[in-house]
Amino acid sequence: xxxxxxxxxxxxxxxxxxxxxxxxxxxxxxxxxxxxxxxxxxxxxxxxxxxxxxxxxxxxxxxxxxxxxxxxxxxxxxxxxxxxxxxxxxxxxxxxxxxxxxxxxxxxxxxxxxxxxxxxxxxxxxxxxxxxxxxxxxxxxxxxxxxxxxxxxxxxxxxxxxxxxxxxxxxxxxxxxxxxxxxxxxxxxxxxxxxxxxxxxxxxxxxxxxxxxxxxxxxxxxxxxxxxxxxxxxxxxxxxxxxxxxxxxxxxxxxxxxxxxxxxxxxxxxxxxxxxxxxxxxxxxxxxxxxxxxxxxxxxxxxxxxxxxxxxxxxxxxxxxxxxxx
Amino acid sequence: xxxxxxxxxxxxxxxxxxxxxxxxxxxxxxxxxxxxxxxxxxxxxxxxxxxxxxxxxxxxxxxxxxxxxxxxxxxxxxxxxxxxxxxxxxxxxxxxxxxxxxxxxxxxxxxxxxxxxxxxxxxxxxxxxxxxxxxxxxxxxxxxxxxxxxxxxxxxxxxxxxxxxxxxxxxxxxxxxxxxxxxxxxxxxxxxxxxxxxxxxxxxxxxxxxxxxxxxxxxxxxxxxxxxxxxxxxxxxxxxxxxxxxx
Lengths: 326, 247
Fold this sequence. Notes:
The structure holds two protein chains of two kinds. By secondary structure, chain A is an all-alpha fold.
């Protein structure tokens, strides 16, 4: 979790600069892809809080992205709301629904919780498809406007990318603070040993609900950006496939690592594009790469990196332990 | 003398089996009560009933005169009742320091202040003192999961004391700990007992440890109290010897 001091800070600054100048060297499709990367990173950061930090498995993240997307699409395209209002409502709505979805997690865990959240995703998908009056059913909603903020139009690809990047930066900063606050510590305690946590005064019920609510709210935030990014939404992208994809991002990147979701989103959003040159083979290559990674390192890319960097630090620990033992 | 803990007629049945039956005792401030008994005599079940981890089938528990029967463990902990576990229960992925800060943080401020306030909830110094006190200094930044068994036991005990509890229930603190560390642990426990007037209940199989630590001892067999008294009285009790060795 620590930034590994100065080299880490320098590296982060370089990444930030690269992200800022990126649109200048990219074609419109490239700008669209890195915008999608930013949006999916936000959703994956949310899932990483719920799953990676608090240990509550959820297959419902796609549903929250969907709720956020439809909330922002309906309010801006049909009712002419300003984007800011729709964005805020999407976050608050998903926070509330996520909090309610946390209740089953107080009773069931692991696979059973996966099934409960899976059912929720299916339920939301069916509502989006069948409530035609509101959602347009399978025809979806088109003509979702890209917002103007304080007189600055984000109609162009790069401008909207900067909006996504800005939201990603704010979300990252808030999440960074959250996971280093006592709340973050309590979330990890839930993951590692809820019984012991409760004997230390950690209100496991309240923290579990909060882990769900905050993670879901970030799903809603991602959705609220997703709708104006693609400018047309229908229910299909918010089905179970996206939930599994987000789960993949969190686990491939490194579940419970702060930077895991960003890496995972690269693998999930950009890698398929890079592999496109291999044409019809790309899905096979992609699947094999992911499976290999999971076999070699179940704790994801960052887990792998940590393991490779570890031997340098291992020795002093062993010596300290030997000294402590009488 | 102030009464800290009062247990009245506590029973716990699992189906037809009675694990704890009609157990009553009181505990005054500053006492160290030992609970001994053969395996399966209901000691840990008794702890879990007192601490709200299990709902007792009958009976009541009072802490400082307040009824706490069946209260959630986290609420009970915030009233000043802490515990250690028989099997290792630390947070393996957190560092020793983080484990200790976690153990105290829920006693600081409100839910909101814990979200927006300082990351360490102002507990870094207290954690540092606890690390020194339990002589874990060289391990402060190591992940708890990487510590030896005995070190994790010490950490487990240290965590129970982070919130400055009035009453601590220790479930086999000496189990699996080597002799040097054991002497260390006893000395630490006695120091906390003296300095903070903390009250302890200790389940233990190590007779030497329990006899040298406790002021009073309860003996459980098949879920009932069969003897109580000072270490000397219990040592000479015929029923106790029979319970352990058979007749």
